[in-house]
Amino acid sequence: MIDTIRAHREDTTRARVLARMEGNPDPPILASRSLGWNGLIAERFRHAPTEHHFPALPENTVSLYLGQPVRSVRWSGGGMHEGITKKGDVTVKASGQPVGWHFDKDVDLLVMRFGPAFLAHVAEENGLDADAVELRPSLDRRDDAVKHIGLAMLAEMEAGGAGGRVYGDALATALATHLLRNHGASPQAAPDGRGGLPRSALRRVTDFVNDNLSMDLGLSEMAGVANLSRYHFSRQFKRSTGLTPHQYVIGRRVKRARELLSKTDLSVGDVASVVGFTHQSHLAHHVRRQFGVAPSALRG
Predict the structure, then answer these.
(1) Which of 10, 75, 120, 229 has the smallest C-beta neighbourhood within 10 Å, fewest atoms?
(2) DSSP classification of residue 132
(3) What are the residue ranges of CATH 2.60.120.10 in the chain?
(4) Between the CA atoms of 180, 45, 87 and 141, what dihedral angle is there, to the nearest 10 degrees?
(5) Whole-angstrom distance between the N-terminal and C-terminal Cα of the chain?
(6) pLDDT tens digits, residue range 110-126?
């Protein structure tokens, strides 16, 4: 028992040291690291009301405040800001920018961090000048798009990645694209491609999905089959099918699960694994959502 307590304390200490090295005074209470999202790390933090200093980090950082209103004082290379931070407020911190802050109460934050290479890659996919990519720092700005994407990321982390990597990749790309268009040093409109996927490309993608349902399908792999960037693939796929790539994958998994449940003796847990759901509960959730019954009710 003593050894167990000592090991737990050592793990906690290591986590706190790592968090401070990365610029956070406390380790995250929830993180996306294990979900394999491409180019983005999302973490939820709860900080005590004290003064914190964050060093200049290479990532571009976006934070969404989740708690009750607090009085805050924050400073950076651009000066000092004092005011009330409210639930839903969004703060953008550019890479290489040290900041510090003090809150008068406990704070609850969702922090989303992009590496410069990922942001530049998304810029190129959108036909923007990757060399000119630079986010404008801002404090406590209302931005409903960031709020909705951030809350979707938080729900996905709480669900243990139930939507699969393709969903996380889509959220990361959508957030990066929005930031480039609305928080860039000189906002640039991304080109709006018309029409959907060519019929041959759509067939390649749907065949790829159907042949690999048991895999952890990502948006990058699907877009690669169509020889498109993730951003343009997502838009054109939805124009062709009326569904996002994530919705299509979930639909195919549920349909395949129904076939297996009605025609085989595989257990519900085995069926969930075969069709690519991480947990049996994820399969049950989507089956109930689509058919209004538990998976066992689909038995032949």
Answers:
(1) 10
(2) G
(3) 28-160
(4) -30
(5) 50
(6) 999 988 888 888 887 77
Measure the CA dihedral 160/30/171/289, to 10°. Answer: 30
User: 């390649």: which residue's tokens?
Assistant: 204
| Domain 192-300 CATH (choose: 1.10.10.60, 1.10.443.10, 1.10.10.10, 3.40.50.300) | 1.10.10.60
CATH code of the domain made up of 28-160: 2.60.120.10
**Tens of pLDDT, residues 54-83:** 767 778 889 999 999 988 887 765 556 778
Which residues, in sequence order, are bridge partners of residue 53? 100
When the pLDDT of each residue in the chain is averaged and rounded to a whole number, the result is 81
Q: Which residues make up the CATH 1.10.10.60 domain(s) of the chain?
A: 192-300
pTM for the model stands at 0.65
State the Cα–Cα distance between residues 244 and 69, nearest whole angstrom.
35
Q: In this predicted model, which residue has the larger pLDDT, 188 or 224?
A: 224
What 204-213 contacts at long range (C-beta under 8 Å, 24+ apart), as own/partner pairs, is 205/237, 206/248, 209/248, 209/249, 209/252, 210/252, 213/249, 213/252, 213/253, 213/256, 213/274, 213/275, 213/276
